[in-house]
C-alpha cells in the first residue's frame, strides 16, 4: 500500500478534492467578510465533531479578509432511530460564553435533513444573538426541501453517504483531505 493511500480501497470516488475545498473556502470567506464588514467581530460556532476541519480552514480564511473572529464549539446529539435524525436534540457541550448581541455564524460540515440545524438555530436565537447565519461546506438535496435558512453553501452534493474532511463513518475517515463516497461494501463490515 502506498503511503497516504490506505483509504483508496474504501472510497468509491472523491467528489470534492482538497484543492476544491481550498478554493471554495476562500470564496466563502470573502463573501462573509464583505457581508460582515460593519461588524466588530464574528463569532463562529462549530458543531462537533464533523465541522472541525472546515472550522479550522474557514476561520483562517476569514482572518485574511474579515473582521476579527472568535471560535466556539457545541456538541449535540439528536435522538432518532438509526441514521435518520428526529429533530429532538440533546446538548452534549454547550457554548462557553454568552452570545447576546453577537453576530453568530454556525459552521457546519453538512446539511442533510436540516432537523438538527433547525433546532440549533432556534436555540441560538433564544440566547439573544444579534444575528444567526449558517455556513456549511456541503449540502444534500433533501436540505433544499426543508426550509432551513443556510446562507452560505460550499458545495451541493448528491444524496450519497460521504466521508472525509471531518465527516466520519463509525468515527473513521475524518482525516481524509477531501470528501468522497464510501463504497457500499464498507457498510457490510463491522
Ligand atoms: P441532518 O439533521 O441535517 O439530517 O443531519 C446532519 C448531520 O448528519 C451532519 O452534521 C452529519 O453529522 C450527519 N450526516 C448527514 N449526511 C452525512 C453524510 O453523507 N456523511 C456523514 N459522514 N455524515 C452525514
Ligand atoms: Mg454537523
Ligand atoms: Mg458522524
Automatic annotation (TrEMBL):
GO CC annotations on file: cytosol
Matches recorded under Gene3D superfamilies: 3.40.50.2020
Entry EC number(s): 2.4.2.8
Annotated localization: Cytoplasm
GO-annotated molecular function: guanine phosphoribosyltransferase activity; hypoxanthine phosphoribosyltransferase activity; magnesium ion binding; nucleotide binding
Recorded catalytic activity of this chain's protein: GMP + diphosphate = guanine + 5-phospho-alpha-D-ribose 1-diphosphate; IMP + diphosphate = hypoxanthine + 5-phospho-alpha-D-ribose 1-diphosphate
Principal location: cytoplasm
Cross-referenced InterPro entries: HGPRT, Hxn_phspho_trans, PRTase-like, PRTase_dom
Named cofactor requirement(s): Mg(2+)
Pathway: Purine metabolism; IMP biosynthesis via salvage pathway; IMP from hypoxanthine: step 1/1; Purine metabolism; GMP biosynthesis via salvage pathway; GMP from guanine: step 1/1
Boundaries of every Phosphoribosyltransferase domain copy: 24-169
Gene Ontology biological process terms, A to Z: GMP salvage; guanine salvage; hypoxanthine metabolic process; IMP salvage; purine ribonucleoside salvage
Keywords on record: Cytoplasm, Glycosyltransferase, Magnesium, Metal-binding, Nucleotide-binding, Purine salvage, Transferase
SUPFAM superfamilies: PRTase-like
PANTHER family with a match to the protein in the record: HYPOXANTHINE PHOSPHORIBOSYLTRANSFERASE, HYPOXANTHINE-GUANINE PHOSPHORIBOSYLTRANSFERASE
Family listed: Belongs to the purine/pyrimidine phosphoribosyltransferase family.
Designated name of the protein: Hypoxanthine phosphoribosyltransferase
Organism: Virgisporangium aliadipatigenens
Amino acid at each position: 500500500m502506498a503511503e497516504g493511500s490506505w483509504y483508496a480501497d474504501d472510497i468509491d470516488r472523491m467528489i470534492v478534492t482538497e484543492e476544491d475545498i481550498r478554493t471554495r473556502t476562500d470564496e466563502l470567506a470573502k463573501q462573509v467578510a464583505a457581508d460582515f464588514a460593519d461588524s466588530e467581530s464574528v463569532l463562529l460556532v462549530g458543531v462537533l465533531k464533523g465541522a472541525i476541519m472546515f472550522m479550522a480552514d474557514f476561520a483562517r480564511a476569514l482572518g485574511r479578509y474579515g473582521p476579527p473572529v472568535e471560535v466556539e464549539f457545541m456538541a449535540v446529539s439528536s435522538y432518532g432511530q438509526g441514521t435518520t435524525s428526529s429533530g429532538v436534540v440533546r446538548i452534549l457541550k454547550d457554548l462557553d460564553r454568552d452570545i447576546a448581541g453577537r453576530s453568530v455564524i454556525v459552521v457546519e460540515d453538512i446539511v442533510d435533513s436540516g432537523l438538527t440545524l433547525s433546532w440549533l438555530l432556534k436555540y441560538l436565537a433564544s440566547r439573544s444573538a444579534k444575528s444567526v447565519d449558517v455556513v456549511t461546506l456541503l449540502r444534500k438535496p433533501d436540505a433544499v426541501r426543508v426550509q432551513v435558512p443556510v446562507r452560505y453553501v460550499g458545495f451541493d452534493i448528491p444524496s450519497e453517504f460521504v466521508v472525509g474532511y471531518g465527516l466520519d463513518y463509525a468515527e473513521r475517515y475524518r482525516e481524509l483531505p477531501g470528501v468522497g463516497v464510501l463504497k457500499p461494501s464498507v457498510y457490510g463490515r463491522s
